């Protein structure tokens, strides 16, 4: 094996090692971001302080601004935080629309929708959030379209287009881009938004909310929309249902 080939192979190994180190660092940053917002979701006592510390220490401007969107959900002055976010760095850090990037930060739209639900009685905040995020280039993405419908429904616009939400629930969204890991959350949010808007939904779709309400995101979202109590299955109800099923089995055996 000649020297040139050895040098090439050595260079490849070094490059692979460098890429692996970079990926590990990125994963650690992502983990810190996830840890910070999970504390917020769980309502932990030190959640705000932890989030602020994370934002101050974060050097990646895209991730820092995504964390600011989380902060807007819990801050005492959400308007100033919403205005402080650099949305171009969040959604178009390269300066151009990038489909893959938007999919990779799809959880950001969950926080934006949560913010809309929390501040549902503050029209100024609702309009501000929507105006900052609005971008027709994003219309190919499930997450953005759910956000858009959420704004129209929660702000009680005269003309509300819920057609995309119903298409999503019927499985008609193959032409759109989306994060496969989070699509279930957006479907459940869509059901909740339709119920909140007074639209009829299939019983199977509505049943999803009984599981959704038990999750960190779902519990907060449904509570914000004043729907939480409706979908919490009380222990007494579960016991009654079990007793009914047992009685049916006994009757069938007879």
What is the topology?
Layout: H1 3-42, H2 47-57, H3 61-74, H4 78-84, H5 87-91, H6 99-104, H7 107-118, H8 123-133, H9 142-154, H10 163-169, H11 183-197, H12 203-212, H13 216-224, H14 228-231, H15 235-253
Structure characteristics:
254 residues; mainly alpha; 15 helices; disordered C terminus
Distance between the termini: 83 Å
Proportion of β residues? under 5%
Count of separate DSSP helical elements: 15
Mean pLDDT value: 85
What is the count of β-strands? 0
Helix content: over 70%
Please state the structural category.
mainly alpha
Q: What does the overall shape look like?
A: globular
Uncertain residue ranges = 13-29, 235-254
Order of helices and strands: HHHHHHHHHHHHHHH
Main beta-sheet annotation: none
Cα Rg = 23 Å
Structure, described:
By secondary structure, the chain is mainly α. The protein has a domain at 108-234. Helices cover 72% and strands 0% of the residues. It has helices at 3-42, 47-57, 61-74, 78-84, 87-91, 99-104, 107-118, 123-133, 142-154, 163-169, 183-197, 203-212, 216-224, 228-231, 235-253. Helix 2 (47-57) packs antiparallel against helix 3, helix 11 (183-197) packs across helix 12 (203-212) and helix 11 packs parallel to helix 13. The longest helix is centred in the first third of the chain and has 40 residues, at 3-42. The protein is globular, with a radius of gyration of 23 Å.
Quick description:
The protein is mostly helical.
